[in-house]
Amino acid sequence: MFADLPAPPVAAKKPVSDTRHGITRTDDYAWFRADNWQAMFKDPSILDPQIRKHLEAENAYMEAAMGDTAALQKTLFNEMRGRIKEDDSSVPMKDGPYAYGSLFVTGGEQPHYFRTARDGGDKETLLDGDKEAMGKDYFRLSGIDHTSDHTLGIWGYDDKGSEYFTLRIRDLAAGDDLADVIENTGGGGVWAPDGKSFFYTLQDENHRPSKVYHHVVGTPQSTDRLVYEEEDPGFFVGVGGSLLDDFIYLDIHDHETSEYRLLSTKDLHAEPMLVSERVEGIEYSLTEGGDVFYILTNDGDAKDFKIVEAPVTAPGKENWREVVAHEPGRLIISHMAFARHLVWLQRSQGLPQIVIRDRRTGEEHAIAFAEEAYSLGLQGAAEYDTDTIRFSYSSMTTPGQLFDYNMATRERVLLKTQEVPSGHDPEDYVTRRVMATAHDGELVPVSLLYRKDTPHDGSAPCLLYGYGAYGITIPAGFSTNNLSLADRGFVYAIAHIRGGKDKGFAWYENGKMEMKPNTFKDFIAAADHLVAEGFTSYENIIAEGGSAGGMLMGGIANMAPEKFAGIIAAVPFVDVLNTMLDDRLPLTPPEWPEWGNPIDSLEEYQWIAAYSPYDNVAAKPYPPILAISGLTDPRVTYWEPTKWVAKLREHTTGTAPILLKTNMAAGHGGKSGRFQRLEEIAFEYAFAIKVAGKMQA
């Protein structure tokens, strides 16, 4: 499989010891963390030459190991590209006299933003992403947001992969940018109704959005007014607006606690008004409904959330009145309010639903769907006084569909069906949802996609994907890329493991903090079930996960390496204990509610130390592993997978290769262009196909 490889790079050992709670640990590879990492994110050229030399050696070794897949990668890329409508366009969303949308041009990597007259007409290009990206190795747009009078737009870009966005202001009629340049932002801004100023978040030196500023068009950034500063490094700040343009929302939150402050657009220089002070473990979010706010919250033991309302003039908790009761097992995910309707997206029995309530009569109805497993997205509307909302639907076999839905008449209008230019017949494929029994008797949903002619005798290879963190639910939606695996006889599977909210909020709680090992055990249980039911065999399962899902990959590699033929870990968060012990890193304080605070708590130190993938590498035969990282990634820093790979190589008792691919001009999300991203997916799938022995398939 991986014959005649050169010797892999051997990382130098430079032991560094650290003692916490009376426990001393020694890290031989801590030196991979550059002292100037913060500055390096903005200027990668200043990376320590010794570290760069090692990363380049790792890339060379990876290329040698994967060299025989070059033709396969090209084939996969061409297949995936052939399933994309290159000159695709969104269906514009109506807002005032215009409708706004985005499109791609044939051969283009970046989106173009446009508008038309409200009821259709010629497209007016507002922002050409391909033009702006010209000559840059990395380029990512954060979108464009227009003023209420439709004359100006804020747009942002990141050209390093470090997620420090620069904002510019565009004259939408002339197509030119004004002189204003706002640097080191979170990526977007919210206009004041008069279109003369906007609000944005600034990333601090530790890459945390901790400040909200008010910028007046035509003035230098240095004169911007500080509106709010969050002193607690464990909380991030976001800024948003409402459909009615009455308020600027300041959203202050970590992973389990939230607080809102409101700035009336009638007095932009007033002190933001606190809605309800933060209480640990209590979350809430607001949407404006005329003279009331509708507030989604878990307050009062509403674990799966409820909706309350409060007067706009007095939105404090003492005035909250329940309007949608809490129902255990029915998780309310998000909500929107319009002039005559309240809308929310909920998940019940692992499947999403859109529910609509008439605000005048209280009558409710849900939009119904028939498939066994599917994905649903609620886009809502850009206007408040409307009866029409927009939603998207797909399943693992059904291409994406976009609908306008009249909440009053219940009429559903299909606006667009995702085109697959190279052809796709849903009847050739099967999508299923099966239940795997976990170690403690819980049933873990697993979504499957495979061709109808795939044998169920254990011979089929399987790519088993998982994430399992932050309450994020992985939808069972349509992906043209996955068809390249299914067409080669693979079963593509998504394990909806604890740590996500697939089965309600308790599903999340039982996969975090001291319960984190449930996430790993659920994934292994999913693999066991697929083998027991004949979908695949242990010799044919390739596991895949990224970021926190990369932690999952490290966990299952240590716990059950014999049950996986290979492992793909993209930007893997594997050095959990060291990262959570360093409060200078961008995400560490906000992450403590998710993983624990090992600085202050011996117990929480011990939780993390017991599973942290890097700390639990041991002498055992690891399967082939592909780790992927980005040099300027502020979320999972490049040194985590670099250290992990070095330690795996040192300890493995097997002969399988451990590979590291570092994107030297990208961050957490990999390359930024739509086709560049396909190249990366083709590379990952080529690894899976090679490990599965299907190179000629």
From TrEMBL:
One of its GO terms (molecular function) is serine-type endopeptidase activity. It comes from the Bacteria. Gene3D superfamilies: alpha/beta hydrolase (3.40.50.1820), Prolyl oligopeptidase, N-terminal domain (2.130.10.120). Keywords: Hydrolase, Protease, Serine protease. Residues 478-693 form the Peptidase S9 prolyl oligopeptidase catalytic domain. GO terms for biological process: proteolysis. InterPro entries: AB_hydrolase_fold, Pept_S9_AS, Pept_S9A_N, Peptidase_S9_cat, Peptidase_S9A, Serine_Peptidase_S9A. Residues 8-417 form the Peptidase S9A N-terminal domain. Pfam families: Peptidase_S9 (PF00326), Peptidase_S9_N (PF02897). Belongs to the peptidase S9A family. This is S9 family peptidase. It comes from Rhizobium deserti.
